[in-house]
Amino acid sequence: MTTRIKWLIFVVLLILLMGMAPSGRILESAYAEEIAAIDAVGPAVNEKNYLSPEEYQDSTLSVKIKTGRVLNHTTYLAVYVSIADAKQMRSAMAERYGSKTSTVASVIAKRVNAVTGMNGDYFSMNQHGYLVRQGKQYRNRPDVNYDLMLIDAKGDIHIIRYPTKDAVEGFLANHPSPIINTFNFGPAIIVEGQKQTEIQEVNNGRNKQAQRSAFIQTGPLKYIMVATEGPEDKGSKGLTLYEFIDFIAETFPEAKNAYNMDGGSSASIVYHNQKINSPQNPKKRQLCDILYFVTGEQP
Amino acid sequence: MSIVLFEVWGFPVYAYGFALALSVGLSAVLAEARCKKQGLPKDSGINYVLIALPLAFVLGRLLYSLINLESILTDFPLSFVLEPWKGGFALMGVLLGASLALPLSAKWSQIKPATLADALAPAGALLLALSRFCEILSGEGIGRYVDNPSICFFPIAVAPRPDEWYYAVFFWEGLWALALAIYLSKRRSKAPGDKGIQFFLLFAASQIVFESLRGDNYLQWGFVRVSQLGSLLICVGIALFFTFKASRQAVKAPAFILPWLGIFLSAGIVILMEFAREKAPELPNLLVYAFMVFAMYALVVLVRHLQTLAGTKR
Description:
The structure holds two protein chains of two kinds.
Chain A lengths: L2 H18 L29 E3 L2 E3 L3 E10 L3 E10 L5 E5 L11 H7 L4 E4 L9 E5 L2 E6 L6 E5 L4 E4 L4 H10 L4 E6 L3 E4 L2 E2 L16 E8 L2 E7 L12 H11 L5 E5 L7 E3 L2 E2 L13 E5 L6
Antiparallel strand pairs in A: 1-2, 2-3, 3-4, 4-15, 5-19, 6-17, 6-19, 7-8, 9-10, 9-11, 12-13, 12-16, 14-15, 14-16, 17-18
Chain B lengths: L3 E5 L2 E4 H23 L6 H24 L1 H7 L15 H19 L3 H22 L22 E5 L2 E4 L1 H18 L7 H20 L6 E2 L2 E2 H23 L5 H26 L5 H25 L5
Antiparallel strand pairs in B: 1-2, 3-4, 5-6
């Protein structure tokens, strides 16, 4: 083989390399099946609508923040949200799907013009789940150990306990409204008004006193985001998962469906681009996703 | 976000792939030039590249697929492994392919693999540097979010989005590899294979630290980062090589005890610091990484001591 031919072959290999090595990681375009894509970034927020550190109000979105004590030993924070349109409830990732990049919840919230929001399920740390975000399906691998919360296009949340592929497919087949976002963490706390008492035997720290967070729907387009403090917070001991379920059921009797989200240091509620739960704890864990609310008013 | 530069018959060509191909081309030219300068047979450089390029490509893809098999099968059919144009390559696999190509191409060019490795080492380091710089074109190679505004500027950090800064790990890796390329091009190799070994040793020792800094697309087996494990194995492998060589030159066993104790201690410090980083976030990062860098410096010094014992150090 002459030198010229060798270099010619090399050039051909280089041309092939250009097309065959687009990235060290899987391209986002490789992930398929868009169901009903919705823009993640919300309209710019009018600062005047932040009436106080505990209240936001405009014609499409109402946010009220309350705090209290649980079992006389732990502080909780509850954010009551009411929206005019289901599209105002959204999810966002720290970085594109497939990346392990994480960042603090307030940064993601600021990026998408969120008025308020909370941590998601940190899906990038595992491989399981039926994962849909902003109408795009990324995974179809439900795991019976992680209850599934589905949010449809009407803004209603549905919870499938011990989800299997058949169970999810059966639900989707009978559910007319497309699913916009899903979360795979759990366990379910309240399902169709019924308090849940069984918890899966997985590594969810159910007997450990820790920070907890939950997402609750109380009615059409009405929600509550809840976070309780933990032993790292001054004046709080934290709750076991069982205590947390009791607390949610007793404190929020109006809850139709309630779902446990990621807790511990990941428990983050943001409002006005700041993390507002556990204010005395400077630790801000970096997260991979949030669930949040935007205004429906155009600037 | 990966940038599409242009399309060829509907097939997208991404900026990263384009830049990587240019980098490989440049490094190949340098490799051939250095082989010529070293007095090696004609085409020694291009012979190596023709074998290394496809081998590195295939093994890079295979290793990535093997490590990520569970998540790949979550999202794709098994045939995804045969679709490299969808992205996904492992650096350790690429290095393995490049290493395996050495004895094969050396045989083709009728020279010793160690001699060829010495000639190619600077070009290899240059390619590593350029490929690291290219990573930003696919949004890779960034570290954790930076919340200290006083260090939010390049080259410490980059802002892939407005007002969101992340450590520019890809740039530091590229700079280090560039420094390595310059060092290797100037270093005299009195023993065959010396430059090749130095390339792997210094790359691997640094990669253990750099990989820890990455916050995006790193490969993991459980909680272990694959590149860190692979790099540690490379360092230990080189240490074993020199130990074996020294023992064949009648160096007595007690001479190896302290160096190996030091090597295990260095590895232990790195493992401990990795745990500390995860489980004790209240520890200052600067302290954690200072320990890591010190441990890797000590490891390199100890391996070079073993090299001295083996009688091959300049």
